[in-house]
Specification:
This protein has helices spanning about 5-15, 25-40, 45-55, 75-95, 105-120, 140-170, 185-190, 200-210, 215-230, 240-260, 265-275. It is mostly helical. It starts with a helix and ends with a helix. The protein has one domain (about 5-275).
Length: about 280
């Protein structure tokens, strides 16, 4: 079956409206959401091409190359529909049931994501994609602040994995303030010991590789570096609402991958006790 956005909208409506969903049905919905996000954002470039164009129109020229231009015509409204509906489906998948991503070691990660989601419904600048903001506006800073804080998830989750690996596998204490780690290179290998089994680790590893070799990831990294290091022209107007939503979708997809491939919170608890 070829998945469409309408299927994701239907699943989102079910997750919102039904108080109780059988576990096997719920798991199937999560797999469908994950598969659709992979195909839409990491295996195809049409939406990312449009986001690069949108960034250029809103003050940020990013050097993201596309070897084969997409022939799909997408309006800003189409982009909004893809991003908002995938964002909503992921939110329901991750937060409808508090047990869905219940990991003691990732409590801060889940809190950061929840904080962004709460803000995204409160501050107009985080859902209004039509208005361009100058650098003196509160909205400009709300967007940049939200993007940079949400992006810290990649560093935090990578250092958590390294800390746990050093403590429970290497059985030594490392000063991580002196260590430079990258999510795409260091996280999978350091979290491997907490995977359910070798098969699940391979799924985790290949899934993260698909994400971090995609144009979506390249775009988000470029934008992050632009916000951190480049000069914001006072005569330009900016808006990164779409990019914030894409960043959440990437993080949310990774959370679903971890949920599927890592030991449960209880299994981790007993494992940590057994190796101490």
């Amino acid at each position: 079956m070829t998945l469409t956005l309408q299927e994701i909208i239907k699943i989102n409506d079910i997750l919102i409206s039904q108080l109780s969903i059988p576990q096997d049905e719920f798991e199937n919905y999560l797999d469908i959401i994950g598969e659709y996000i992979d195909k839409t954002f990491f295996e195809q470039d049409a939406i990312i091409e449009k986001l690069v164009e949108f960034s250029e129109k809103s003050g940020r020229k990013l050097d993201v190359k596309f070897w084969n231009k997409s022939l799909i015509v997408l309006s800003d409204e189409h982009i909004r529909d893809y991003l908002i509906n995938c964002k909503s489906a992921l939110e329901q998948a991750l937060f409808k049931n508090k047990e869905t991503f219940k990991y003691y070691i990732f409590t801060e990660i889940k809190s950061i994501v929840r904080f962004y989601l709460n803000k995204s419904y409160t501050y107009p600048a985080l859902f209004n994609y039509e208005t361009l903001y100058d650098i003196k506006s509160a909205e400009f800073h709300q967007q940049n602040e939200s993007f940079k804080y949400l992006f810290t998830v990649f560093d935090k989750i990578t250092y958590i994995a390294r800390h746990l690996h050093d403590k429970y596998v290497k059985k030594e204490k490392t000063d991580l303030n002196e260590v430079s780690l990258k999510f795409y290179a260091d996280f999978p290998i350091n979290i491997k010991f907490l995977a359910k089994d070798d098969k699940m680790f391979l799924i985790l590893q290949t899934s993260i590789e698909k994400i971090t070799t995609s144009r979506a990831w390249h775009y988000i990294r470029k934008l992050r570096n632009n916000i951190e290091h480049d000069f914001s022209n006072p005569s330009s107007r900016y808006n990164i609402t779409f990019s914030l939503q894409l960043l959440f979708i990437i993080i949310g997809r990774i959370m679903l991958i971890l949920r599927k491939t890592l030991k449960s919170d209880l299994e981790m608890h007993y494992f940590f006790k057994s190796v101490m």
